[in-house]
Amino acid sequence: MKQRNLFFYILIFAMMFLFGCTSKEYKSNMESGIEALKKEQYSDAISFFNKALHEKNTEEAQLALDLSKQIKDSVAALEKGEFETAISLAEKIKNSNETSKILDILKPKAEKIIEEAEKTSAALKEMESELESGKALLEENKFDEAFAIFKKIAETTSNNEKIVSVTKNAEQFMNQAAASKNQYLQEQEKKLLQEERQKAEEAKKRKEEQKKAEESKKSRPISHTEAEQLVREYLKIENASNVYVEYDHDNEKGEYIIHVYEIVISDPETKEGHTSTWGWYAVDPVKKVVRDAFE
Hints:
The chain is an alpha+beta fold.
């Protein structure tokens, strides 16, 4: 009987000892998990709360574990650029009606995540819009303007995966803008040289044609009217004067014989009169030389 009682007391003592140790480990893990949450070390917090839950299955430990996973998933979604998911998870923590020390710690952090997600989402949309503007300018060969936009985007610093992706794209387009500008300038220079060469060739051709035309003109016999004008110029006779310069015939040398005369009015009332010859002149139709026909 005494031995049975002794065994019973030993069992009770052992259970009390084990329970005391379990309670101590549970408390230690819960405290460590809370400290990890404060430092935003969410993976460590999850590990501590898992251990605490293993030591003692309580609603407190389960809630701490669930909230730690939510905040960790929210942060991960934010870093990946999954803004709606990040905000949704953070809002569950922010709007929770539970009363808990864990929530007191996480609610401000959840609000911070929501604010950062909204801010980063807006920044991403603006960067993507600017990137498209830069690409449009690049298509219009406005290389310097496009380069400036791409450079501004590329210089954005962020740990967000989508922001980083856009900055890398901007770097590539920045390099493309620089390369395209060099290629464009080279093509324009080549085109300019070709145009100048073509202009020079066309000018040379026009000059040769003009020379041929002048030579042809020199070798072409002038008309009777042109010969009459040469004589007028030779004698310095104005076109409006009462002196007449008229072609008469060709001589045996092929020269045009031009008769120069004036009409003298004898009777102003009847306007009768007679012609008074100034002279006869021979014009070489090819050489365009005027001489006195009787010399």
